Amino acid sequence: MNFAKSRTFQATLVLVTAVILIGLGSSLVKFKQSIRDIQKNISTTPHEIRYQLHQSIHQVTLLEQEMRLRKQHSLSYDSRSLINRTEQLKYRVINIRGTWDALDTNLDKSHVRAEIGEFEEQILTLESLLKNAFKNEITFMPKVAQQILKLKFANTQMFASGSKFLRLHTENYVKKLSTIATAINALIVVFISMLLILSYSLIVIFKQRNTLNRLSTEDPLTKLYNRRQFNLHLCKLVDRYNNSRSPLTLVVFDVDFFKMFNDNRGHIAGDKALTQIAERLIALNSETLGLDAYRVGGEEFACLYCGLDYSDSLALAEDIRKTIEKLKIPHETSDISNCITVSIGVVNANQFEHATSDTMYSAADQALYEAKKRGRNCSYQYNT
Questions:
Q1: Percent of the chain, pLDDT > 90?
Q2: pLDDT digit string (tens) for 50-66?
Q3: Domain 227-381, CATH 3.30.70.270 — does that match?
Q4: Torsion angle of alpha carbons 48, 54, 59, 65, nearest 10°?
Q5: How far is residue 252's CA from residue 370's CA, in Å, rounded to a whole number?
């Protein structure tokens, strides 16, 4: 019950961790978009505004220089040229206002808008004076020169206010960027922690699954295959024999007088003896490739081997019997030997016209019974 609860807890933990990881991933995507927006608002748009402000300064300076040169060299004023420059300034103001409106900021832009409005008003006043200069150049040109100075002052004020605003705007977004960076670092730490938890949970689940698989196929004492696996393997190999006539040998054996051994030496010694027998069978498997060993009962074992004909099956059984006898495990209460021995029944699938797992096992069990009748510590092959 505790094991089942543990598996449920681990599965729930994996699910919760996966949901958290998905949420973290979504948050990181949102942060990425926020960073792009910040990059736009502290780089692209402010850069465009600065460019427009610098261009306005440049255009006003050109306007002022043209007026100064004409005055110094006593040249006639070209009102049309000055009006064209004024028209360019009007378009510049439109661009400046557009870029300011596009700027996403939490700061109050009303002061900057007022400066832009003042600059635009001075441009319109200059344009009006230049248009009237056609009528009386002597009267209006001094007024034009004075208006250009006012325009320059308004331009300087707009540039100063805009530059200050952009500096504060950039600092504000840098703080936001710093906050987001801190949040991302925290998310990364949580993300890594969740990954570690998920990895640990998966490792535990896989270990538990492997443990369950091992418990379902392996005898916990001897580490041999258990009765369940024996039944599955026997059915599979018998089916293969019936389809391809591939030779199959089944060996079943008991430890002789094992109850007396347990009563005399105790169950711990009995378990140790069974473990020693199992270890010898495993070693025999490495020497005789293809021999699979099983513990099918208390002191009952079975072996399956593919590739031996009827005439060689008994020899295999004798090899197993002699190998176990050579362990020299003391058995003082045995009626036939002073050490542990086994009685073996053996059967080959080709002894049947159509073999089944039940008939094979029943025949091997009968042969085992016959070996015991013949005095134990011997092998007997089923005889139809």
A1: 35
A2: 888 888 888 888 888 87
A3: yes
A4: -170
A5: 12
User: What's the token pair of residue 104?
Assistant: 């996403």
CATH 1.20.58 fits 2-199, yes or no: no
Q: Using CB atoms within 10 A of its CB, is residue 290 exposed (0-12), middle (13-18) or buried (19+)?
A: exposed
> 366 pLDDT exceeds 80?
yes
Give yes or no for residue 3 having a pLDDT over 50.
no
Domain range summary for the chain, segments of one domain joined by +? 2-199, 227-381
Do domains 2-199 and 227-381 share one topology? The answer is: no
pTM: 0.54
Computed from CA positions of residues 36, 42, 45, 47, in that sequence, does the dihedral angle turn out positive or negative?
Answer: negative
Give how far Cα 115 sits from Cα of 72, 122, 128, 136, 369, Å: 32, 11, 20, 31, 113
3-state secondary structure (DSSP) of residue 223: coil
Give the C-alpha distances (Å, rounded to integers) separating 23 from 9, 18, 104: 21, 9, 28
pLDDT digits (tens, 9 = 90+) for 262-312: 999 999 999 999 999 999 999 888 776 678 999 999 999 999 998 888 888
CA atoms within 13 A on the CB side of 191: 14
